[in-house]
Specification:
402 residues, alpha/beta, Aspartate Aminotransferase, domain 2, 2 domains, 7-stranded mixed sheet, 3-stranded antiparallel sheet, 14 helices, binds pyridoxal-5'-phosphate
């Protein structure tokens, strides 16, 4: 028998930073008969999704949909635009940045990896300096994660763009927005991003298994001369078929059914409200963590992630054991730890279909679990989060009087 029967009852609190909990409305939209993926009804669905995604990436250019996890879209971004031996500048913000760098190496590219301590975002001044050093303009691309999911640091992409421009360097800009898309403001066109990589299973409130490339005209031009081999990932075939509402091969039909509704839901709430909700829940979480006397992994107040918070446990407390205990006793899942923080931290996801109520539940459970695990904390972190949320909402009576 399971240690605690509560595990089987009620909802599992999936507070990992993706995959995220799905709205029932999205699940119901997917629970529908399969239709012909080359029929007229499907073409309408495809077009609705492709147009909808443009509003999420904030681009007027095409967005390409892959039946693949985010990792696939990373690969697609690189191999559609680059050639063997090309130099790329990447920033070691954490585990996910490291995985992307490893992929670039395996693909025959030559990444230069700008180090960080995994507690700060990408530094645009360092990017600018590296590009200025490259007098021969050999660096073909700058790759940055918008939100580093392994630590909870958000990089400022508009500033990275400015750094590239200030250096007068022609490198393309690639941004991974997998764990920030549809939960944090993101502007593919305005920020001059050449390839944006997105994924379905985080802020977009869909299951894992779909990923995206939003592309600029400059990236499309680069794809004409790129020499890395590509077949399944080729943008050309996709863009041609997408024009008439189809794919070169069978797409994940039910995911598209869900996507159309997820995008509707984001617009019904209003994207700015979606972003404000994520900022509010992130701040509430940080207030609780601070009150408990624990440290967030991210050390720069300007870079705190709106979608997840990495929490460092005091020395001598095994974070993996803590997560296992919390799952067993309270049916909650937190994100695991990686690299230099393995066993030292856990990550609280606050993205997707989350609201004040679900967040207070998660923080309440976290405060219980920390105590049960004998982590020395100051009680009352949840109250600190509640106080902040009340202040953010204003009292209903006061609002009515306004
Ligand atoms: C989740 C995530 C990935 C990996 O996506 P998969 O769907 O697991 O392939 C890559 N980058 C970031 C920033 C992520 O959050």
């Amino acid at each position: 028998m399971a240690k605690n029967s509560s595990r089987a009852i009620g909802r599992h609190l999936l507070h990992i930073p993706g995959p995220t909990m799905l709205p029932d409305r999205v699940l119901r939209a997917m629970d529908t008969p399969i239709i012909d993926h080359r029929g007229p009804e499907f073409a309408k669905l495809t077009k609705r999704c492709l147009e909808g995604l443009k509003t999420i990436f904030k681009t007027t250019n095409p967005v390409i949909i892959y039946t693949a996890t985010g990792t696939g879209a990373w690969e697609a971004a690189l191999i559609n635009t680059l050639s063997p031996g090309d130099r790329v500048l990447m920033v070691e913000t954490g585990q996910f940045a490291t995985l992307w760098k490893n992929m670039a190496e395996k693909l025959g590219l030559k990444p230069e990896f700008i180090p960080t301590d995994w507690r700060h975002a990408a530094d645009p001044t360092v990017i600018e300096a590296k590009l200025r050093e490259d007098k021969a303009k050999e660096i073909k691309a700058v790759c940055v994660l918008h939100n580093e999911t392994s630590t909870g640091c958000l990089s400022n992409i508009a500033e990275v763009r400015k750094a590239i421009d200030k250096a007068g360097h022609p490198a393309l800009l690639y941004v991974d927005t997998i764990s920030s898309l549809a939960s944090t403001d993101y502007r593919h066109d305005e920020w001059g991003v050449d390839v944006t990589v997105g994924g379905s299973q985080k802020g977009l409130m869909l299951p894992p298994g779909m990923s995206f490339n939003a592309v600029s005209n400059k990236a499309l031009a680069a794809s004409k001369t790129s020499k890395l081999p590509k077949s399944f990932w080729s943008w050309d075939d996709m863009l041609n078929m997408n024009k008439v509402g189809f794919f070169p091969y069978t797409p994940a039909t039910q995911m598209l059914q869900g996507m159309a509704v997820a995008i509707d839901m984001l617009h019904e709430e209003g994207l700015d409200n979606v972003f404000a909700r994520h900022h509010r829940l992130a701040e509430a979480t940080r207030r609780a963590v601070k009150h408990w006397g624990l440290e967030t992994i991210c050390q720069d107040p300007k870079s705190h992630s709106p979608t997840l918070t990495g929490v460092l446990l005091p020395d001598g407390h095994d974070a993996d054991a803590f997560r296992a205990m919390a799952l067993d006793n309270f049916n909650i899942s937190y994100g695991a730890s990686f690299g230099r923080f393995t066993g030292k931290m856990f990550r609280i996801g606050h993205l997707g279909d989350v609201n004040d109520a679900s967040m207070i539940a998660a923080l309440g459970v976290t405060e219980m679990a920390l105590q049960l695990h004998n982590v020395p904390i100051k009680k009352g972190g949840v109250q600190a989060a509640i106080d902040y949320l009340i202040a953010e909402h204003g009292s209903p009576a006061r609002k009515a009087a306004e």
